[in-house]
Amino acid sequence: MTDLASPPAVATEAGAGTDRLTPSERDRILAKAALFSPPPAVLADGRRELVGLSREEMTQALAEIGEKPFRTKQLWHWIYHQGVTDFARMSSIAKPLQAKLAERFVVGRPVAATVQTSSDETRKFLFRFRDGQEAETVYIPDRREDRGAVCISSQVGCTLSCRFCHTGTQGLVRNLGTAEIVGQFMAARDSYGEWPSPRGETPRLLSTIVLMGMGEPLYNYDNVARAMRIVMDGEGIGLSRRRITLSTSGVVPMMDRCGEELGVNLAVSLHAVRDELRDEIVPLNRKYPIAELIAACRRYPAASNARRITFEYVMLRGVNDSEAEARELVRLIAGIPAKVNLIPFNPWPGSAYLPSTREQLDRFAQIVMDAGFASPIRMPRGRDILAACGQLRTESRRTRPVAA
Ligand code: SAH
Ligand code: SF4
Predict the structure, then answer these.
(1) Which distant-in-sequence residues (6+ apart) come within 8 Å of 9 by Cβ?
(2) In this structure, which ligand is nearest to the CA of 268?
(3) Which ligand is nearest to the CA of 167?
(4) Does this model's pTM top 0.85?
(5) How far is the CA of 367 from the centre of ligand 1 (A)?
């Protein structure tokens, strides 16, 4: 990590924008997120959802029914290691307590409204939550190994309106809650029968999480952070932070916090190398322009040569795919331990762009590679079921309930 830019370079790049990094700016983002809070994780009959509670909260909930703290460890194991949802199957817990727990609590899952498996084995789930809202989760198998990534949604919709993104056309309905975020991964695991959680290097299909589904994870930071802490807990699902990648369109103040607190891998949706163009296609750029975004990447604590930042770059024909732009891209990210994911634009009905030609993609990739950055061209998977990460949209939901 010592090879990152020196502090003076960071200060110059951040320029006058450093006021955007103040605690008050973070507070403003968190307060806004609260306006789109998920409904409380409680059933109509009063039973409380245990999934999504931190260990401390679970201990507190158990104390309220007169149970001792050691029960948390037991329940945690059953819920997150064994994947059990029925208290009656928790054999280390005596029957009377099983019944008492079942009266007060529930271990739920989002309901799979639809499941589609593509010809390339990509599987897309449309999950429905308790209030009827839906979000998509995609399992993307690795072609070479018996493992794969679960692409998880963080919001229903998105407040940002990137011009090439299908999710961005629907506005934000609401944030997903902790239980709903963890629940997507757990329900995907149910679907592959991958319980109990494999330990250590045991091969497993659902081996990584990418927060690249619907929504901007850093605009729902609290719930996303709580969910990631749960999946990283070594006595449960036990995914290492190296196996989690959070993709952001560039919410700079929250990138710092994410790096400090979670230390997960970072993917940054760059898509343009000039502010004028990025302002148009990723409108968040008007708030956090390229220089500030790149400065935040340079200081991202979890980046190193072993754990590179991924710059995502969706290739739009004649818009951002020139060789001059490729050269500017490598100049911008010089010195950052990074790779560049070139994503062929995946068109959707009504979209205003065309994908770059294969020749142009290759020319662009070559310039980036010649500069020493890995630049895989990420072929869209699950095309036949419209499952590419980031272009998800819940077709079945047309009305948009207003957040209270
Ligand atoms: N909001 C976050 C994460 C979700 S989008 C973000 O923007 O990073 C995940 C990725 O898919 C982003 O890089 C996004 O730009 C990309 N994406 C969105 N729409 C796409 C499309 N139609 N074709 C290809 N990639 C797309
Ligand atoms: Fe939101 Fe990401 Fe889509 Fe932009 S690309 S609209 S930030 S989901």
Answers:
(1) 298
(2) 1
(3) 2
(4) yes
(5) 23
